[in-house]
Amino acid sequence: MSAKQFLNVRSDLVSEQNSHTAAYLEQGDGTPLLMLHGFLGDATNWRPLMEQLGNRVRCIGLDLLGFGDSAKPPIRYDIAQEVAFVHQVLAALDIESCYILGHSFGGWVGAAYALAYPEAVKGLLLAAPAGIRDDSFCGRYDHLRPLLWQTPAIAWALKVAKPIASLIGQRPAVEQIAWFRRELMAQPAACSFLLDRLRPEDAIDTVEKEIHRLSVPTLVITGDRDETIPLWHSQTYANEIPHAQLAIIPNADHALPQKYAAELAHLILPFLAPRA
Fold this sequence. Notes:
This protein is of the alpha/beta class. It folds into two domains: 5-136 and 203-275, Rossmann fold; 139-196. 36% of the residues lie in helices and 18% in strands. The chain has helices spanning 47-53, 79-92, 105-116, 152-167, 171-186, 188-196, 231-240, 256-259, 261-272; strands spanning 5-10, 19-27, 32-36, 58-62, 98-103, 121-127, 218-223, 245-249. An eight-stranded mixed beta sheet has the order 1-2-4-3-5-6-7-8, with helices on both faces. The longest helix is centred in the middle third of the chain and has 16 residues, at 152-167. The mean pLDDT is 86.
């Protein structure tokens, strides 16, 4: 598969800069399908699904603003920033309308984009979408905040902890924490959301109160073993969006693009076919 491509997109909402770099993967021809990754992900998460779809669909996997190889401006990230970025990317690619496939965080962005630009979205495919207010999430990640401290002491402590952890059989856990810190430090949008979404009142841009306005064809997909985004979140999307369909993949966890690409392709192709 080809490497990521880059383009400069005009900046209006996101910062004072005139333009930002957008990184993306593209494969196939025909109906455009914009793919939006989940939290701590990037466009490469979609490679297994792109391989399953082959050349039947024009797949465009985008690194969202603040993730992957796209621009990482020093701003307070929110969904409106991501929607503005997606809008400018599609304009730069000269795509007037497309289907949007969003996983987790990307599903939240995709739904918000369809609310802002309904005429530009032919259909929504939401895979275990985030974006539904759930106060049980607040405080869940408070223990991760020290990993975001901008100090070499944290990296030093993790390095020192590895040999000790090996002696007590906990080295994999320490390595997982070290990996998570590296990922967070490399993805400022993820850091911003973790730091700025710690209280129920911070959930100001969730979409559960607005999605009833959507009129685009929608398919919501989730796994019955997803422990990251509860099933009722996907059910809320399916119940609130008029005529939306809900598909549940048996024995599937949250990593739908990476581990269940064949199952996703089996659901996506019939959804696209009558509308292409």
